[in-house]
């Protein structure tokens, strides 16, 4: 079936236009790919630019090549191509001796990325310790990259949250006479050169940062390690964004885990065997008194405003500032409130979106204002046991949810092609998806006629956030009821979530679309009505976010047109269902089965 309409989400977060025209050339073009024998060398291969992945905005051609082949994914799985994290780790090992010989310079630098906190920050702590040892100033820095924001589909609310957090961080560091340098670099390709220029300007011989696990970032850190060494600079990238670093956990066969349950048992066992991994890293100390005068220009320079491609309106800025106060102090206060008031019953209440029973800390994990290590340690410390899988059921359950974040970053590191627009189960590429712009637009705006779906999408569009149970419901609905390519939903989430995290978002969408790890067989299809009745039994969540149904009484709120409340719904402008779930389920089963070339189990 040919694609029906182009359904590209715009950079500003608007839903796709209804009568778009394809804008991508259909002529094949030569592109560079790693060679089989030597990944550092390249060869040219043909790519067909008529692929739907380009036409519908799944692949941004200005930043990335088209979707890679299944054969190349298989080569990653067969260890025929080194993974970016393996290249980084090998680079770190190969340069360790030479880097250890570098003597201290005039300053030490910590490069902030998604670790915007002073508390329990490994890279920052190591930088602070070295600066203190040699009595030289510590300089902190952050680069605002509009092109990286666009390449990663970072939402405007997320950018706004980062910039507001940087204001808090600048004040906190300033109290210790530590300058925070923040600069906008328009061209993402020039960021490494600009970093080197700044390191040399400041006379820094040691630079620290925490590792990010996406492909581009891993490759960049490997290059920075080598380029800095060529200039006599020790660039040290360390694991901090996860509790247990990728590569530390293996199956009995020595392989990486692709299913959460056995992985989590190994994760817990590893932490029980190494309890010091949960210890906090100390914050940096006071800078030498000369630092404030020496770096006066940095102290006096304000945090830049959001790039044009990620600006919010004034109303949006006020709304998100009210909903999501920024900074690590807010993160730690939220954590404390949750541990004191809600965690005990978390396991029994976490699936009910109207219950307000979750920690609402995902934005802080995403921006790095709260370390996952801090969250797990703090939860453990309020339990009746030091065992992460013992004691209170609520505490055990919440620690397990934090562990999911680690799990998806382990997956991202070992199966890097999920970062390249491929499903973990790359054979699912053969499923024939729909690209109906009208249906996608209705899903985006929350006007599908399925109340629980519409409530969740409206919450996302207003808050930049959606309850986790609802994320699964709307993802399953898009992929299996509408049969729309799940990667379009994945992009829409990233462009609107304030807590957008690539690994967790990709993992969640793969789970719901049955294309990812921890497999849900494709014939497990959420029934939105049953999900609604089970997890929003009184309809409070629906009535809050779908005011057209506020007057509908009782169970009819879950299916107004099927349960006698159609007159009220129609009068208030609520739409009829865009599809019949039973028919859609049958269609999805056939489409998945045909795409995989096998019968259902």
Automatic annotation (TrEMBL):
It comes from the Eukaryota. Its EC number is 4.1.99.3. Keywords: Lyase. It is an enzyme of class 4 (lyase). This is DNA photolyase phr1. It comes from Zalaria obscura. The gene is PHR1.
